[in-house]
Amino acid sequence: EHLIDQIKAGEVIERPASLVKELLENSLDANSTNIKISIIENGLELISIEDNGDGILFEDLPYAFCRHATSKIERFEDIYNLYSFGFRGEALASMAAISRITCSSTPIDNPEQGGKIVIHGAKEMSHTPLASRKQGTSIFIKDLFFNTPARLKFIKSKTSEKNAIKRVINAFILTNPKVQFSVKWDDKDKNIFKPVEDTRLADRIREIILPKNSPNKELYEFEGEYEGHSVRGFASAHTSKGNAGKSQYLFVNGRLFTDRQIHQSILRTMEKVWPFGETGHYCVMLNVPPTQVDVNVHPNKTQVKFFKANIVFSLVSASIKKFIEENFK
Ligand code: ADP
Ligand code: MG
Questions:
Q1: Which residue in 39, 6, 8 sits closest to 21, CA to CA?
Q2: How far is the CA of 57 from the centre of ligand 1 (A)?
Q3: Cβ distance 181 to 37 under 8 Å?
Q4: What does the alpha-carbon distance between residue 85 and residue 236 come to, in Å, rounded to a whole number?
Q5: Atom of ligand 1 nearest to the CA of 87
Q6: Using one digit for the tens of pLDDT, what is the confidence trace for 259-296?
């Protein structure tokens, strides 16, 4: 039975970065406004997330780590509803099967009914009541993949996994401006992202997408709207030679995705401002009616399918062109 758990876990938790994504979605689902993240050894030694969200009752804790204990998809239409995050109640159970987890939680409504649970490789080691004044949930995940061959693979691929985790975290920081994030790497490099108002969104985006030593902190902002589709984009005036792929973010309805055609359209249109065809950093946020996009191509993949791809594509390039005409001609 544990073996089946491990195999299934491998499908949901492909890599440390996908685990980080699931945990952050849970914290945001629980209405957290302050999330502290700590990653050690690219997640293999420790992934910890502390939030100040709604919390979990002592008696509910074991169920949170049970397969199929919860399910958000109750109606067929939910599949098309972008705003519902989550993995049909399998994420925590999958993590619990392949790591050593300690989870402490204090519910917002019943602070005296908090609890702590310890699970090693799907086996519950302890489950005890917890009296804490610290509202929210803390999850510590140690020794990820300790009981699977996958661990070796991630020990070898160090830098690429760090970049993948960074990208996941950055995506949440970019799309949740009102939430404070603190991100710590290997117990030393700590960055705090204070909440920002919508009107100051560019400040947070600048912090994320521009390199720290960037000589030009200016961001070009463009927007547009067409038939229920809208776009808001930020692109750096900073130029950097070569592929700056790590600071290029595309979102649809708050979800990170990749699309080669849209990506190239952004770069090509921006080239008119950026001389010499150099590539730039950008964050482009699309909003489309949930019925006009299929995001469930694969839960761990970042492709999406637009039903009116032409509208999306033209909207993005037209908005950039309009911005350029208004500002550079
Ligand atoms: P899903 O999110 O699809 O329900 P998960 O396995 O990710 O499945 O989480 C299981 C359940 O545990 C959630 O439905 C939620 O009730 C609870 N939970 C998980 N993380 C948190 C958190 N950070 N704060 C409050 N509740 C949480
Ligand atoms: Mg979830």
A1: 39
A2: 12
A3: yes
A4: 30
A5: 3
A6: 999 998 888 888 776 654 455 789 999 999 999 998 87
Alpha carbon distance 271, 269 (integer Å): 5
Longest Cα–Cα distance in the chain: 67
26, 78, 113: residue to mutate for ligand 1 pocket, most atoms within 8 A of CB: 26
Ligand 2 centroid from CA 305, angstroms: 23
Q: Tell me, what's the ipTM?
A: 0.99
Half-sphere exposure of 92 (CA within 13 A, CB side): 27
Q: Please, are residues 263 and 312 in contact by the beta-carbon 8 Å criterion?
A: no
Kindly provide the b/e burial profile for residues 65-86, where b requires at least 16 CB atoms within 10 angstroms of the residue's own CB.
Answer: bebeebeeeeeeeeebebeebb
Q: How many other C-beta atoms can be found within 10 angstroms of the C-beta atom of residue 25?
A: 16
CA-nearest residue, atom 4 of ligand 1: 89
> Which residue has its alpha carbon closest to ligand 1 atom 2?
86
Q: Give the pocket of ligand 1 (CB within 6 Å).
A: 22, 26-27, 30, 51, 53-56, 64, 70, 72, 86-93, 137
Structure tokens, 231? 């776009």
Please write the tens of the pLDDT for every residue from 177-204.
999 999 999 999 899 999 999 889 999 9
Closest CA to 169 of 13, 295, 16, 33: 16
Domains by residue range for the chain, with CATH = 2-193 (3.30.565.10), 212-328 (3.30.230.10)
Q: How far is the centre of ligand 1, averaged over its atoms, from the C-alpha of 68 (Å)? A: 11
Reported as a single tens digit per residue, the pLDDT across 95-146 is 999 999 999 999 988 989 999 999 999 999 999 999 887 899 999 999 999 9
Q: Whose CA is nearest to atom 3 of ligand 1?
A: 89
Which sign, positive or negative, has the C-alpha torsion 89, 296, 98, 107?
A: negative
Looking at ligand 1, which residue's alpha carbon is closest to its atom 7? 91
